[in-house]
């Protein structure tokens, strides 16, 4: 490594972080897909010349992709890819469109910028292109292997024509793609400025030092916090929408010296349906890094530098490493559940340091058809749920587990789509009881105002989100179709193409989350506030927390509370570190 | 006759007096009185009058920047607010758009502040209006009456009404206000349609609740001031400075206090624009570096950027304000080395207690100020300074970082200095390049006590020259207030695709807003010939996320038609984002801006001097550390500098409220208004 002073490294690190922010801003402001723009389902990255990520939010795939161009990569080239199987799973379903752009300073390749975002529709049998019943990737819409969208600065119009012919939302997709390119170009310009300012050698030296820094840090985290004896943890996905399931995800973790091992052996084999999650190794390493950093030291900037100290085993043919052409469209269940499993495994020896399980997926409400003016509409709304009880406090009610996502304003929905929201609130009692209460789910009742079809993606409808450190499990998700004539029909958590008429309603209830710590240790005053805020019922206050109220004044009845709590303590026996709720009844060994 | 501007800060209240016939300006400071800011305000006015032998009755007008509203929010000392929403949407503030911070897993450490209206005091009204303004469910008056009564029984001090789709039809909100006022006319009611008749219910509700939250403390404060003015038999017109740099009367401030959340910072921005223009630089990036934070803003072609969303604490408030980006980097920011071996500066700050190590009040952590002391940029005995800096303590503090970095204290201090500059550079990019402006086409202006020490170095990073150091960077906000006009905005959501937009309909809608502006200017007693009303239309691609405000006149709409909006939008979109699209364009909001011009006399010039500035040198022997070595760096006394003087760097220019550093390779020139202008090069 070139000898370069540490302060220059810090300055370049700061500059790179700023560039990453600028990439996001550029995209948010100009994208059309509400999933990118309002909900921020997009991921930026800047790599060094060899393709290692130096700053960003996902794992690098660049070497694997650029190697697929025998003619090489040139100035002005822009690579576009949407096929998970040709980039090692860096994008994990065909709705994620990724752009990779080589950055040259003068004639020298100095790195790549890359960004991917979730576009609204990529064709296939179902609007929004994540059919619940797909049994192979061929049934999930158009798939682009790595292609050059721009070749030496020249736009390849044929690709644009193919795109437009294969989606229900051609204009939106086209502009989203251009917005992603614009965002990568922003990074290109800024990195070039950095190279001019510091000189290429210094820039490279700084990148190397940054990678080295993260590596050192991660070795320290591993040594301090991971067990030398293997620990395993299991969680489940309810089903695959085709009647199979539940699917087990099992992770075993241990360390040898300052290297860590993450082994998915024991995970169920891949599903016939689309819930498979092609877990990219670099992506998983990034998740691990991000998780450890959040738990133990949030100030650390992470990059690819620590990847050689993490070792991943994911057996081929399993849910986490499906074989092409397995369907991948609905992978968010496994993707989110992965964190519950990771968190669970890491906390087996120290449950007091980790949060419980949350709503554990990314619930979607998809509604499409033709509105009163005959204009095609296609709404895909990401929903949220209960964030788990945590060591530092209560879980948040109806919040996003996904970073920086936000909900879609009701006034926006009602202005642009033929629907009405009757209520939008969090579900009382759906957060598991705990000294730190689990967050409540979301409950939203829609009235459809146009004939159309509905799709629903959700999970945790059978198995509950677990509680930790003595906390109770949270509530499950559910969906109900209420026909205009009042007849009610329960819907599965994964369904497509439900036909709706004007006046039909959908009640969308997401999962709650588990509580943290002994509910009998929760201060009665906190329980009282929850009751007054209508987040916890009087019954739950009594049954789970042992707090008794005067129902007319909502005053705490102190003596009765002490007595009830003592009695409950005597009767319940020892508290388990993990409370899996109904798992034993649902999962047949 | 005279005009007075008063800026109440955390520690000091700055007062600036201007003679209306000569334009002469004099400033003074008095300690702030946080428990009741009006005491410091009146003391400051009396003090400046006494110091200059002026009768109170000679003061024609007072312009006042206040932090009462902001402090109420930041300190959680606002009113007990009740909130009426549409039934089924009571948890709107509780859910707060479901946002959690990045990156993945960061929610685990996310501490969320309580909403300004508790769920306990939030009630749903049985009513419903659709997105087009049609009534779906009539308001159940009895039900809402009984809810309001119950809230009032629980001791609610201020009531907010924010109903779904009320931006399209305010009748239910207005009726609920009537009902509430029937129940108790003494409790203030804010309705969302009055505060922000734009769509997106969370932001509208939050902004209205914030207005309710700060309204009682603001009213108490304004009443205090009025009483004091009456006691002194003062007839001056008192105006409150708004976040967008405009002025409003006391009654307006009492009902719309949410528009004063950034009252103070706006003064600095206005002043930066004014001084920029004075020096012939109409494009200015200004940065106000204080003890704990730095505010950065941008002025293009003499006009500061107005933003319509700002953050107060973590709350996104939709209220027009001069755009200011704030980062946690200031003179008190602490340098530290985490286990990765990186050198970090901030966001933790030593604050004023204990303050930087060199202040000698027990601080041990190395701060940016300490680094400046070690480097010799901040001379230990400041001319006119009330405080002697403890060099040894600064060196000891920086040594702690140097050890971890395995270097000497001078390189460590240089590192701290460079990194804090880099952090501020990041903030200047947010206001410039991210908005499509090239900082090299701007000059850089420093405000605040710590700014001038870093201005030259920051200018080098941004490429913004000249670097401008005004004569009194410490009291610049108050100076800015003197330049303010009376101002207000009226807007409404007006969602129409351009393709089926009727020009006459748009003109009529703008005309309604024009009339609102007109009657407001009447109320504010602005003379006819001083009135100006402008229009803006927020435009975006159909269903895109962000709107861009486009200026337009009725004449243009008459002559060219609505297509002018699409043309302007396209070219601005291309300027900012680098591309445009063949996609339908839609209007989202329309807005009218009312301006009442306030005459502000220009600041007089000073007699000229010569190029040679050696007469102002007060220390020939001083040395400071640059690029690995100590160099001879003479110290100049700013008060002795005259127009036309030039100083070749390295040099230090010292004055009562700040210290300016001129780097090697740069030259500082004094202009006719006593501004220092730093340019690259070393020729006289």
UniProtKB/TrEMBL annotation, chain A:
Superkingdom of the source species: Bacteria
Cited InterPro entries: Hydantoinase_B, Oxoprolinase-like
GO MF entries: 5-oxoprolinase (ATP-hydrolyzing) activity
GO biological process: glutathione metabolic process
GO cellular component, one term: cytosol
Residues covered by the Hydantoinase B/oxoprolinase domain: 5-519
PANTHER family, sorted: 5-OXOPROLINASE RELATED (PTHR11365), HYPOTHETICAL 5-OXOPROLINASE (EUROFUNG)-RELATED (PTHR11365:SF23)
Protein name in the entry: N-methylhydantoinase B
UniProtKB/TrEMBL annotation, chain B:
Family annotation (InterPro entries): ACX-like_C, ATPase_NBD, Hydant_A_N, Hydantoinase_A, Oxoprolinase-like
Gene Ontology cellular-component terms listed: cytosol
Pfam family, one: Hydant_A_C
Superkingdom assignment: Bacteria
Start and end residues of each Hydantoinase A/oxoprolinase domain: 204-489
Origin species: Halobacillus aidingensis
GO biological process, one term: glutathione metabolic process
Residues annotated as domain Acetophenone carboxylase-like C-terminal: 504-673
Signal peptide per UniProt: none
MF terms in GO: 5-oxoprolinase (ATP-hydrolyzing) activity
Domain Hydantoinase/oxoprolinase N-terminal: 3-183
Protein name: N-methylhydantoinase A
Region ranges (Disordered): 344-365
């Amino acid at each position: 490594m070139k000898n370069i002073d540490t302060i220059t490294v810090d300055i370049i690190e700061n500059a790179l972080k700023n560039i990453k922010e600028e990439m996001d801003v550029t995209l948010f402001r100009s994208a059309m897909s509400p999933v990118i723009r309002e909900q921020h389902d997009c991921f930026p990255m800047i790599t060094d010349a060899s393709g290692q990520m130096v700053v960003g939010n996902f794992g690098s795939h660049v070497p694997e992709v650029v190697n697929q161009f025998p003619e090489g990569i040139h100035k002005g080239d822009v690579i576009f890819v949407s096929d998970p199987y040709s980039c090692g799973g860096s994008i994990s379903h065909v709705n994620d469109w990724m752009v990779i752009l080589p950055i040259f300073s003068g004639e020298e390749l100095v790195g790549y910028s890359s960004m991917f975002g979730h576009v609204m529709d990529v064709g296939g049998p179902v609007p929004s292109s994540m059919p619940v019943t797909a049994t192979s990737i061929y049934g999930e819409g158009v798939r682009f292997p790595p292609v050059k969208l721009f070749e030496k600065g020249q736009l390849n119009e044929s690709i644009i024509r193919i795109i437009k012919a294969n989606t229900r939302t051609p204009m939106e997709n086209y502009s989203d793609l251009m917005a992603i390119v614009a965002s990568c170009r922003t990074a290109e310009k800024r990195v070039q400025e950095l190279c001019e300012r510091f000189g290429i050698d210094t820039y490279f030296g700084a990148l190397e030092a940054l990678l080295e820094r993260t590596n050192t840090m991660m070795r320290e985290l591993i040594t301090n916090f991971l067990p030398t004896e293997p620990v395993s943890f299991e969680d489940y996905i309810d089903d695959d929408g085709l009647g199979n399931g539940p699917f087990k995800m099992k992770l075993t973790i241990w360390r040898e010296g300052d290297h860590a091992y993450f082994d998915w052996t024991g995970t169920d084999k891949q599903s016939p349906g689309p819930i498979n999650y092609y877990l990219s190794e670099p992506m998983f390493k990034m998740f691990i890094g991000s998780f450890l950093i959040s738990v133990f030291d949030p100030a650390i900037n992470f990059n690819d530098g620590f990847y050689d100290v993490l070792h991943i085993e994911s057996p081929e043919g399993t849910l986490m490493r499906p074989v092409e052409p397995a369907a991948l469209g609905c992978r968010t269940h496994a993707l989110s559940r992965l964190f519950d499993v990771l968190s669970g495994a890491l906390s087996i020896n120290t449950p007091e340091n980790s949060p419980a399980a949350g709503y554990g997926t990314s619930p979607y409400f998809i509604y499409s058809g033709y509105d009163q003016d005959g204009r095609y509409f296609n709404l895909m709304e990401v929903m949220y749920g209960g964030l788990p009880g945590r060591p530092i406090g209560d879980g948040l009610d109806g919040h996003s587990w996904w970073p920086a996502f936000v909900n879609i304003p009701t006034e926006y929905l009602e202005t642009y789509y033929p629907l009405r929201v009757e209520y939008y609130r969090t579900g009382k009692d759906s957060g598991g009881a705990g000294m730190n209460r689990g967050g409540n789910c979301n409950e939203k009742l829609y009235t459809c105002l146009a004939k159309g079809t509905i799709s629903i993606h959700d999970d945790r409808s059978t198995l509950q989100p677990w509680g930790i450190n003595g906390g109770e499990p949270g509530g499950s998700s559910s969906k109900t179709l209420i026909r205009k004539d009042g007849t009610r029909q329960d819907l599965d958590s994964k369904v497509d193409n439900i036909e709706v008429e004007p006046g039909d309603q959908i009640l969308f209830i997401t999962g709650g989350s588990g509580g943290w710590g002994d509910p009998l240790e929760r201060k009665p005053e906190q329980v009282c506030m929850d009751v007054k805020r209508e987040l916890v019922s009087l019954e739950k206050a009594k049954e789970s927390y042992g707090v008794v109220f005067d129902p007319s004044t909502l005053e705490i009845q102190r003596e009765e509370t002490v007595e009830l709590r003592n009695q409950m303590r005597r009767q319940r026996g020892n508290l388990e570190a993990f409370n899996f709720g109904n798992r034993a009844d649902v999962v047949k060994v | 006759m005279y005009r007075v501007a008063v800026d109440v800060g955390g520690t000091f209240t700055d007062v600036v007096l201007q003679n209306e016939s000569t334009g002469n300006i004099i400033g003074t400071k008095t300690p702030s009185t946080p428990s009741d800011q009006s005491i410091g305000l009146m003391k400051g006015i009396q003090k400046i009058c006494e110091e200059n032998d002026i009768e109170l009755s000679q003061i024609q007008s007072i312009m006042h920047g206040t932090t009462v509203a902001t402090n109420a929010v930041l300190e959680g000392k606002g009113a007990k607010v009740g909130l009426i929403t549409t039934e089924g949407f009571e948890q709107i503030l509780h859910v707060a758009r479901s946002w959690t911070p990045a990156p993945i897993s960061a929610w685990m450490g996310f501490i969320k502040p309580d909403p300004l209206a508790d769920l306990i005091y939030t009630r749903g009204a049985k009513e419903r209006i659709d997105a087009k303004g049609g009534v779906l469910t009539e308001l159940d008056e009895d039900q809402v009456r009984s809810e309001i009564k119950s809230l009032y029984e629980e001791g609610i001090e201020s009531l907010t009404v924010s109903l779904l789709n009320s931006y399209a039809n305010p009748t239910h909100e207005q009726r609920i206000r009537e009902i509430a006022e029937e129940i108790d006319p003494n409790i203030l009611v804010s309705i969302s349609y009055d505060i922000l008749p734009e769509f997106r219910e969370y932001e509208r509700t939050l902004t209205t609740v914030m207005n309710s939250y700060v309204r009682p403390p603001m009213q108490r404060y304004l009443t205090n001031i009025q009483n004091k003015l009456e006691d002194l038999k003062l007839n001056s017109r008192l105006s409150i400075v708004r976040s967008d740099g405009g002025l409003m009367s006391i009654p307006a401030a009492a009902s719309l206090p949410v528009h004063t959340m950034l009252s103070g910072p706006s003064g600095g921005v206005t002043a930066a624009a004014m001084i920029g223009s004075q020096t012939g630089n109409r494009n200015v990036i200004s940065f106000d570096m204080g003890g704990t934070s730095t505010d950065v803003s941008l002025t293009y072609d003499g006009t500061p950027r107005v933003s319509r969303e700002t953050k107060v604490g973590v709350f996104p408030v939709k209220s027009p304000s001069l755009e200011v980006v704030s980062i946690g980097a200031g003179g008190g920011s602490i340098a530290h080395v985490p286990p990765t071996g990186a050198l970090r500066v901030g966001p933790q700050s030593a604050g004023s207690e204990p303050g930087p190590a060199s202040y000698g009040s027990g601080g041990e952590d190395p701060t940016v100020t300490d680094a400046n002391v070690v480097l010799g940029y901040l001379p230990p005995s400041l001319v006119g300074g009330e405080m002697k800096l403890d060099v040894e303590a600064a060196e000891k503090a920086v040594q702690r970082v140097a050890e971890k970095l395995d270097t000497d204290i001078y390189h460590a201090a240089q590192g701290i200095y460079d990194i804090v500059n880099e952090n501020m550079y990041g903030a200047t990019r947010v206001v410039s390049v991210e908005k499509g402006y090239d900082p090299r086409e701007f000059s850089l202006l420093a405000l605040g006590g710590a700014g001038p020490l870093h201005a030259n170095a920051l200018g080098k990073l941004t490429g913004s020259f000249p670097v401008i150091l005004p004569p009194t960077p410490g009291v610049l906000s108050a100076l800015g207030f003197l330049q303010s006009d009376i101002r207000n905005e009226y807007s409404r959501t007006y969602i129409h695709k351009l393709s089926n937009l009727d020009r006459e309909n748009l003109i009529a809608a703008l005309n309604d807003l024009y009339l609102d502006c007109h009657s407001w200017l009447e109320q504010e007693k602005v003379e006819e010939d001083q009135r100006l009303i402008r229009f803006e239309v927020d435009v975006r691609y159909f269903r895109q996320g962000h709107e861009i405000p486009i200026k337009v006149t009725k004449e243009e709409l008459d002559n060219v038609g609505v297509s002018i909006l699409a043309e302007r939008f396209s070219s601005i979109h291309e300027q900012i984002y680098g591309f445009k699209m063949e996609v339908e364009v839609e209007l989202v909001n329309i807005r009218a801006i009312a301006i009442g011009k306030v005459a502000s006399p220009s600041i007089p010039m000073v007699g000229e001097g010569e190029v040679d500035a050696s007469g102002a040198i007060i220390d020939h022997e001083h040395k400071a550390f640059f690029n690995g070595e100590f160099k001879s760096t003479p110290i100049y006394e700013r008060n002795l500098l005259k127009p036309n003087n030039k100083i070749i760097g390295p040099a230090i220019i010292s004055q009562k409220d700040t210290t300016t550093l001129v780097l090697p390779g740069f030259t500082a020139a004094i202009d006719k208004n006593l501004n220092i202008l730093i340019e690259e090069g070393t020729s006289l």
